[in-house]
Specification:
Layout (H helix, E strand, L loop, with lengths): L1 H18 L50 E2 L5 E6 L2 E5 L3 H4 L11 E7 L3 E8 L1 E9 L1 E7 L4 E7 L2 E5 L4 E6 L6 E9 L8 E2 L16 H8 L3 H9 L9 E3 L2 H9 L14 H4 L2 E2 L7 E3 L2 E6 L5 H4 L3 E8 L3 E8 L3 E17 L6 H6 L16 E8 L3 E4 L5 E17 L6 E3 L12 H8 L3 H7 L8 E3 L15 H4 L6
Antiparallel strand pairs: 1-21, 2-3, 3-4, 4-11, 5-10, 5-12, 5-13, 6-9, 6-11, 7-8, 7-10, 9-14, 15-16, 16-17, 17-22, 18-22, 18-23, 18-24, 19-20, 19-21, 19-22
Bound molecules: 2-acetamido-2-deoxy-beta-D-glucopyranose (NAG) (3 copies).
One 2-acetamido-2-deoxy-beta-D-glucopyranose (NAG) binds next to loops.
Organism: Arabis alpina
Pfam family, one: Cupin_1
Keywords: Signal
Length: about 475
């Protein structure tokens, strides 16, 4: 496949060079194995990397079922993977469903892991991004032509990495991997972005390759032979973008770093990229069964123009994050520890993957839906899985097995209102008794009891003896999307 592509490209190039030689442009083509492109069609599973940990050990053909909101661990594509670490990227949401996810088409979710004592080479993207450090400690440095700032980062730190700002990372710890989740907001092409590297590495060319030697030689004011060594034949070319570093190098890289709390040099960009900890704030909701931390764009200037919120939920085993919905925010969530049973109600209809493949193009079936039916979306989500909770959709999370830790990036998070549907604080409790009676068709005594019996707020214990419906391993379309008998 790659061979054919390469041949075709070479042929086309030869033809175009032959035809257009008289024109004043030229395309130089260096011998180079292009990195795997996220936009390639084909299986989700890419050579060179597997789902770390192996998941169920059951083959990857059972692609994350027909539940369109659940992205199993194996849905991630490996952008980079080596012994030093990996970068994984969730495919464009609209690749899963162009109808359901059109509103978040321009957002991408990614996460990376750097092994202890490693360095991620300088690069920038044509995308804005927000990072959340899931685990470990390190240093991030931002460099422009007028300033350089570096910061210590650790678990729970949130940081804005602005589009086009060159940055590099070091895992300064010698035992613990550094794990970071990111949401990216491309600035050129909706839902697509690229890495730009000043220096060449194993799978990535230097962006200086895009310039002629004459221009480079003149720009740097150095002889062409030197350029060759600097840009295209560097001794590092066999190495990936994440590299081992020595304790001395780490010391040097960490030397100038400031801690997030130490405010801050007064470069214009500081207000954008100064990290802050999500745990510095009191949890928004907290009791014996769970803690919910959130930073929102109204309170943090770093997140303001992107309208992105970051959330971190931690629940003890067998707890229920009570049913709720968000007014405006769609949460792209990621499971960092444990497993949970997730339920969500959606009045939108959607088709299984197969039907999408062979059925009519989605653009053609966009008539307003008149139905009144509610789809019941149930799944078991575990460490490494992602799932999307669209605005307005009531949902609940029940932690299983062990302490559940989930994180979320909230999209369109300015002025979001979260509404709980159960617990001491709940919307239905605020209905007038007469409204409750009229709406639910119950007597006044029942109306009172219905929404006041749960005496916990936000997080509640679930009855451990009660069986919750389990997602089957390979659920049929019908079994997931039973109509909710609400
Ligand atoms: C790495 O992290 C572990 C656990 O937090 C800690 O005990 C150790 O001292 C750290 N090592 C360095 C070099 O910072
Ligand atoms: C969850 O929260 C509890 C209580 O704050 C804390 O002791 C525990 O370490 C947290 N666990 C994780 C994995 O964040
Ligand atoms: C909640 O109500 C139950 C009875 O329904 C009671 O046993 C329990 O102590 C109450 N808990 C709190 C926190 O009020």
């Amino acid at each position: 496949m790659a061979m054919i592509n390469k041949l075709t490209i070479t042929l086309l190039l030869l033809i175009s060079i032959a035809f257009f030689h008289c024109f004043a442009f030229r395309v130089e083509f260096e011998e180079f194995e292009p990195p795997q492109q996220e936009e390639q069609e084909g299986p989700e599973f890419r050579p060179g990397g597997g789902p770390s940990g192996g998941g169920s050990g059951k083959g990857f053909e059972e692609e994350s079922t027909e539940n369109p909101f659940h992205f199993a661990k194996r849905s991630f594509e490996n952008v980079f993977k080596s012994n030093e670490g990996f970068v994984k990227l969730l495919p464009k949401f609209t690749k899963r469903s162009s109808t359901l996810f059109r509103g978040i088409e321009n957002y991408r979710f990614s996460f990376m892991e750097m092994e202890p004592s490693t360095f991620l080479v300088p690069h920038h993207w044509d995308a804005d991004s927000v990072f959340l450090v899931l685990q470990g400690k390190g240093v991030i440095a931002f460099v422009t032509d007028s300033t350089k700032e570096s910061f210590h980062i650790r678990r729970g730190d949130v940081l804005r990495v602005p589009s086009g700002v060159t940055h590099f990372l070091t895992n300064t710890n010698d035992t613990v991997p550094l794990r970071i989740a990111k949401i990216l907001v491309p600035v050129n092409i909706p839902g697509r972005f690229q890495d730009f590297f000043p220096a060449r590495s194993q799978f990535h060319q230097s962006y200086f390759t895009g310039f002629s030697k004459q221009v480079l030689s003149a720009s740097f004011n150095i002889p062409e032979e030197l350029l060759e060594r600097l840009i295209s034949r560097s001794q590092q070319m066999g190495q990936g973008i994440i590299r081992r570093v020595s304790p001395d190098q780490i010391k040097e890289l960490a030397e100038q770093a400031t801690s997030p709390s130490n405010k801050h040099k007064d470069s214009d960009m500081s207000k954008f990229w100064t990290p802050f900890s999500i745990f510095k704030q009191d949890p928004v909701y907290s009791n014996d069964f769970g803690h919910f931390h959130e930073v929102d764009p109204t309170s943090f200037s770093q997140l303001q123009d992107l309208h992105i919120a970051v959330a971190w939920v931690n629940m003890t085993q067998g707890s229920l994050f009570l049913p709720q919905f968000n007014s405006k925010t769609t949460f792209v969530t990621f499971v960092e520890n444990g497993c949970a049973h997730f339920e969500m109600a959606s009045p939108y209809k959607f088709q299984s993957k197969q039907q999408q493949w062979f059925g009519p193009r989605e653009e053609e079936e966009e008539e307003e839906e008149i139905g009144g039916q509610v789809q019941k979306i149930v799944s078991r989500v575990c460490k490494g899985d992602a799932f999307v909770i669209p605005a307005g959709h009531p949902f609940t999370i029940l932690s299983q097995d062990q302490n559940f830790v989930g994180i979320g990036f909230g999209i369109f998070a300015s002025n979001n209102i979260r509404t709980f549907l159960a617990g001491q604080e709940n919307m239905l409790n605020n209905l007038d008794t007469v409204a409750t009676r009229l709406s639910f068709g119950v007597g006044s005594k029942m109306a009172e009891k219905l929404f006041t019996s749960q005496n916990y707020s936000y997080f509640a214990p679930s009855n451990p003896s009660r069986q919750f419906p389990e997602e089957k391993r390979t659920p049929s379309f019908q079994s997931i999307f039973n109509f909710a008998g609400f």
